[in-house]
Amino acid sequence: MGISFIGAVQFWIPTAVVCAAVAVWLARRRRGPGLPRPSSVAALGVVAFLNAATAWVLGLSRAGLDLREACERKAGVPLDDAWNAHHYEQSQKVFPLHARCDATVDLVPAWINPLIVVLLLLTAVCLCTAVCLGARNVTRRRKKAHV
Questions:
Q1: What is the pLDDT of residues 23-68, one digit of tens each?
Q2: Do the beta carbons of residue 130 and residue 38 sit within 8 Å?
Q3: C-alpha angle 131-136-142 in degrees, rounded to nearest 5
Q4: Quick one: which of 34, 90, 98, 130 has the most CB atoms within 10 Å?
């Protein structure tokens, strides 16, 4: 059947709790001015990935198990069987998510796919930054050891 707005909020609560816990943990680990620790930035990347996975599951569940019933109940339009048969592969992709009733009606909200892309990019940026900060710390320790 899909997830309603209240179901989406309830589904996102564990992710919000993890985000809050990571934020408190990062605030307590902060030593002072300067760059954050690599583990802190990596934790932010993991949180961004969890949010992207949550948004993907929400988008995937919008149509539910029966597309015909979801189109009639949620969008108020009948499922166009001819259009659906011709574009069936498009609705079965893992990304971008689509659950189309016809050429104009998509049950997956328009904000889901861009949100997933932005959160995955944020994940990549955070993880690359963590690697760079870790490499920077290692080279600084080696320089201090040789001096």
A1: 777 666 666 666 777 877 888 888 889 888 888 888 877 766 677 7
A2: yes
A3: 125
A4: 130
Q: What pTM did the predictor assign?
A: 0.71
76: CB partners within 8 A, 6+ apart: none
The pLDDT of residue 1 is 44
Q: What pLDDT score was predicted for residue 124?
A: 93
